[in-house]
Amino acid sequence: MNDDISVSQLNGLEAVETRVDTRTTTNGSGPLSAGVAAPEFSLQDAPDHTVSLKDFSGKRLILAFYPADWSPVCGDQMALYNEVLPEFKRLHADLLGISVDGAWCHRAFAKDRKLRFPLLADFEPKGEVARTFGVYRQHDGISERALFVIDEKGIIRWSYVFPITVNPGADGIINALEELESKGVAA
Amino acid sequence: MTKQQTPHKFRGLEVDPRRDHMQGPANAPVTLMEYGDYQCPYCGEAYSIVKQIEQRFDDNLRFVFRNFPLAQIHAYAEVAAEAAEAAGAQNKFWEMHDYLYEHQDQLAVPQLIAAAKRLGLDVDRFSDDLSQHAYAERVREDFLSGVRAGVNGTPTFFINGVRHDGAWDFDSLSEAINAQQKRIAA
Fold first, then answer.
1. Chain A residues interacting with chain B (CB cutoff of 8 angstroms)
2. What pTM did the predictor assign?
3. Of A5, A42, A140, B27, which is most buried by a Cβ count within 10 Å?
């Protein structure tokens, strides 16, 4: 069993862990961790539409960076989040998927998988947003499989980088959101 | 810390004999739990592997099945899960479970009703349960318990509460169960 997989223990957001699979990460500074303000971004979620972090001001947001549309593990991960979406909503959080794929590719992938949440195209300059979050794999030209939970003030409250071949599931996200919920910062 | 109000009861991986669907002795040393989707082709493969595993380990294994329908990609997964629960309410969960996995291309409502007839269920009651989604809440509870336990796709197996991340062909699952038995015996 790979230690990188065991994400379900979350002992309060102050002591939040941000762990990196060091075997694969090529980015120097590592992923942004809890307590840091999420960097502003503005990316296409459709060929004619753009989504920005500031659109979510006052709301909780889950950012799910993933390596590529259509790859088997991602398909499973996004399919799972599609099912868990009502639970994320109940915990007052919106979800955005992000990869370096272009907006047309995202559109085809989302249609094929019937995804009910936006996929953002970190396409030009390639991987720029992944870089600002510290989760770009320079040598591979794709982002890490990384999750960030951002609070209503735009502060990262939980983050985690998974081995690229592991479907992270949703338990870590839900734990982090429930922790936020229990602190009553909430919406 | 105050518990949050939740519309769904969250349950962990602990088996609840009054609620869970189980095969094999309650005191078996190893419990194999599957979170599955009746329309998922991989779960269809896993179905026959689990049957072989149950034969192989016999009284040393308890098998528990919980619903994890991926309803957005599998149009019939939810109704099939509710059908299995509706059959369960008439004490024929496993008969329906087996039927569904053996007829994964026949999961539309009329076909489910025909299945209920073949299995000797009270068809009126079964049809009412389906149309009123009598077991939707229960299926959702299963699903959310899985999400919280780290289920990340289907099928996902747990062996004595630990997620089995390896392959689930007969040899791999057998090996994992054997290892668990040895750990207990040690």
1. 1-2, 5, 7-8, 76-77, 79-80, 82-84, 87, 90, 113-116, 167-171, 174, 178, 181-182
2. 0.84
3. A5
